[in-house]
Amino acid sequence: MTVSGEFFPAAERVMYERSPLMSVICQVRYPSILRIDSDVPADFQDRVRDIFPLFERSSDALAQQIPAEVLRMLGNTGGPANYTFKTADGSSLITLSSDSMSVSTTAYDCWEEFAALFGPALVAFADIYKPAFYSRVGLRYLNLIRRSPLGLGDVPWRELIAPPILGELNSPFWEENAVDARRVIRCVSPDGENAFLLQHGFATEGDDPEQGYLIDFDFYTDNHAGAPDADAILGRFHERTGSAFHWCISEALHQAMGPSRLGGNG
Questions:
Q1: Engineered SS bond to 218: which of 33, 194, 197, 227, CB 3.0-4.6 Å?
Q2: DSSP code of 171?
Q3: What is the pLDDT of residues 152-171, one digit of tens each?
Q4: How confident is residue 49, by pLDDT bands cut at 50, 70 and 90?
């Protein structure tokens, strides 16, 4: 059973010319590895330096890539110090700590390019640190839909976001008077193998005062997984991400973002 296949009807795989995607993150968690706290990860750097040449310590490097308003909405309070490895342009990074590693990008074009970033990092991590297992494998897509860049500045949200997502805002009176709207739902597949967290609602980006609509999907499993299995698990999660996003939006919004069809599903 593919994750959340029973929740979202299959949709064709597309690339948007005017994509609302802010960030894509894959993460693995594992029982604490004290070696990461006690030793500078020089061997790991050697393995990933061709792609991620820049190195620094950071209190929460991943949070630096996400707008402050969105972080507040998601309840982010920062975290312990991490090692970070960045691409030369700073658009993609690895965040490594004693109990988790994530690979994120704000320059996502397609799954194959993102896999070329996180794949070598996962292999290097498993070879060097040999985790007993992964206690969590997750893939997260954060989209912020802003109407004015799409020429939809005067179009109400009820014409752009699907009714099951919008809830009370389907009522014109509610939408016209709402100053804040946020929802969180967590679902588990019937077999208990996989789950997803959907967070959505009003949000802004940086200093731009325009109200946008955040759609944040986090697909994950908390079942123990072997290190060699992580890549396949992430691939299965990706198969559902496009269908999940398409389920959240109207056909009018889909077309406004300029879709072009890609091969495969998801």
A1: 197
A2: S
A3: 999 999 999 999 999 999 99
A4: very high
d(Cα 258, Cα 266) in Å, to the nearest integer?
17
C-alpha angle 173-174-179 in degrees, rounded to nearest 5: 125
Q: Which tokens in the block code for residue 265?
A: 């599903």
Q: Are strands 100-105 and 92-96 parallel, antiparallel or unpaired?
A: antiparallel
Q: How many CB atoms neighbour CB 133 within 10 A?
A: 13
Q: How far apart are CA 46 and CA 24, in angstroms?
A: 24
> What pLDDT, on the 0 to 100 scale, is given for residue 3?
43
- Separation of alpha carbons 8 and 245, rounded Å: 9
Angle of helix 230-248 relative to helix 111-129, nearest 10 degrees, comes to: 150
SS3 assignment, position 197: strand
Q: Is 35 within 8 Å of 129 (Cβ atoms)?
A: yes
Residue 94's SS3 state is strand
Predicted pLDDT at 197: 97
Under 8 Å between Cβ of 202 and 213: yes
Residue entry with tokens 């979202």? 8
Q: Can you say how many angstroms the Cα of residue 101 is from the centroid of all Cα atoms in its chain? A: 14
Residue 148: pLDDT over 60? yes
Q: What does the alpha-carbon distance between residue 105 and residue 92 come to, in Å, rounded to a whole number?
A: 4
Buried b (16+ CB within 10 A) or exposed e, 218-238: bbbbbeebebeebeebbebbb
Global confidence as pTM? 0.87
Nearest partner of 171 among 179, 160, 163, 181, judged by Cα: 163
How many helices, marked H, and strands, marked E, lie in the chain? 8, 11
* pLDDT above 90 for 72: no
